[in-house]
Amino acid sequence: MPQRKNTFSSWSSWSSRSSFWSRRIAQRAVHAGWAWVQRTGSVTAEHPGRLRFGAMGTGTRLAFPLGTVFGEPWIHLGAHCIVGEQVTLTAGLMPDLDLGPEPILRIGDGVVLGRGSHVIADTTVTIGSDCYVGPYVYVTSTNHSYDDPHQPIGRQWPRMEPVEIGPGCWIGTGAVVLPGARIGRNVVVAAGAVVRGEVPDHAVVAGAPARVVRRWTPAEGWQPPLRTPAPVPIPDGVTPEQLLALASLAEDGAAGPLAGLDAES
Description:
- This protein has about 260 residues and is of the alpha/beta class.
- The protein is built from 3 helices and 25 strands.
- A hairpin with a 4-residue loop joins strand 23 (about 205) and strand 24.
- Keywords: Acyltransferase, Repeat, Transferase.
């Protein structure tokens, strides 16, 4: 005797498959649309949109969506910088102020500012070339004062001191750089550190307030000594194609770092 076909089950199965493919197509459309918005909304020297920076070098890009940006005539951005999404860049206490003839915020060449970071320059802030700033870092030249115990702190006139971050630094996630900080060359600031005052060249600082935990000098090298081996440099003459091939081999467990490159290069 032939079995009776379950019309409801067939309809349910077809509806489920249809819903799956509809959602998948819609998802791809949304992702493609958002990628287009990000590309179109990003800011470069060739396509600055409404922003008119005092200077903006070639190859520099501010990712979309932007954070708060004002006082841009007094903001100078170097070449080949990457400014992540939702990064705040401000010069002056508020928009539409005349801050004089000189730039207030100077960012050197090759600087990377991670997503959600803030650089607040109410007086001079300088970030040297080739600095890498992690996400959600806060750099400010202004701090609240609390001299008068009878007035709300937010109503008291703030204190301002210039900030300088030397070239080649790495500022870890969530670090805070306070007014008056002067960070030397090639300094590592640990994640979550709170930096104020002078930091010497080639140092590692950590903590709140940040303190020097390791330093390099020509006479003694790193003190305390580094506990990890130095990274293996890429041999001269290695092509991008070789690096891609090596990466695929390493993922399969067939090669260690840089295995076989010396023989090819």
